[in-house]
Amino acid sequence: MASAAAGGAAKPTVLVAEKLGGAGLEMLEKVANVDCAYGMTPEQLYAKIAQSDALIVRSATKVTRQVFEAAKGKLKVVGRAGVGVDNVDLAAATEYGCLVVNAPTANTVAAAEHGIALMCTLSRNVSQADASMKAGKWERTKYVGVSLVDKTLCIMGFGKVGGEVARRARGLGMHVLAYDPYASEEKARAQGVRLVSFDEALELGDFFSLHMPLTPGTKKMFNDAAFAKMKKGARITNVARGGVIDDDALARALDAGIVAAAALDVFEEEPPQFEGHPLIGRYTG
Q1: Parallel/antiparallel/unpaired status of strands 207-210 and 194-195
Q2: pLDDT at 57
Q3: How many Å apart are CA 28 and CA 12, to the nearest integer?
Q4: Nearest CA to 242 among 213, 207, 275, 205?
Q5: I want to staple 173 with a disulfide (CB 3.0 to 4.6 A). Which of 19, 127, 149, 230 is the partner?
Q6: Which residues make Cβ contacts (< 8 Å) with residue 95, sequence separation at least 6?
């Protein structure tokens, strides 16, 4: 009787709040009842979470204290399909006995390649040239840009993604520095990278590639004071977390010519408020 009862145990319910690949969903469906509900309002999430044993999110869904309160102890695990877990209230998860897991290597190469692509786009003004051409203009000399060879790239956050960016940047002929208070000298040396302080990075960098987590210590780390220490004409890419840059300060640095260009894949609030945003729509051709 005991074995029969165990064999007939109900499958757990997994709430998938953001799109996953088909192969991942197929794996889940073999062991659980899968409820795919995308684009939920907080209220809709509160209602569904009370019937869920597990929740899978990416970066858009905010798993707040209210979510754990609405689950009333039923939620056992939150899975973040990505690197960081800053959209999950970890203190509340601990309080309610909920395990939080992530996939730290899931998009490492993709993020690194995207960062390099943005850096190449910045160096050669690809977006501006494209917009100019589509507007019926022929301005070949205006958007020549600068070479990456022999330029200094400062990688801010030398974890898995930062390491992959360094590997590719050195292949492009760049000198690579890195700022990360937790990175080891051995790892840096093995990749031909020199670790420097935050202030040294600001003073020496021609290009900056941001790969740091969003923490109280990194929030708006790139502010007016940081931009003031940069070389005039610096270029910045951010594929990490939007909150590490003060958007208003970056807009001022762009206006002053301290920062020549910035490519942002992330924003402090996502989706951002397009109307009145200090950065969105600045350069359209």
Answers
A1: unpaired
A2: 97
A3: 10
A4: 213
A5: 149
A6: 68
Closest among 141, 166, 142, 140 to 152, alpha carbons compared:
166
State the residue for tokens 């992959």: 164
Q: Phi and psi of 191, rounded to 5°?
A: -105, 10
Residue with tokens 């197929």: 26
pTM for the model? 0.79
**In degrees, to the nearest 5, what angle opens at C-alpha 108 toward C-alphas 112 and 188?**
70
Structural contact between residues 282 and 131, judged by C-beta atoms closer than 8 angstroms: no
Reply yes or no: is the peptide bond before residue 213 cis, omega within 30 of 0: no
Burial 257-271 (b: 16+ CB within 10 A, else e): ebbbbbbbebbeeee
Reading the block at residue 204, the tokens are 């020496």
Q: In Å, what is the CA distance from 113 to each residue of 79, 105, 179, 180, 238? A: 25, 14, 20, 20, 12
pLDDT tens digits, residue range 175-226? 999 999 999 999 999 999 999 999 999 999 999 999 998 889 999 999 999 9
What is the distance between the alpha carbons of residues 119 and 112, in angstroms, rounded to a whole number? 11
Start-to-end CA distance of the chain, whole Å, equals 73
Radius of gyration of the chain (CA): 22
**Higher-confidence position of 94 and 3:** 94
Measured CA to CA, the distance from residue 269 to residue 163 in angstroms comes to 27
CA–CA gap between residue 235 and residue 261 (Å, rounded): 5
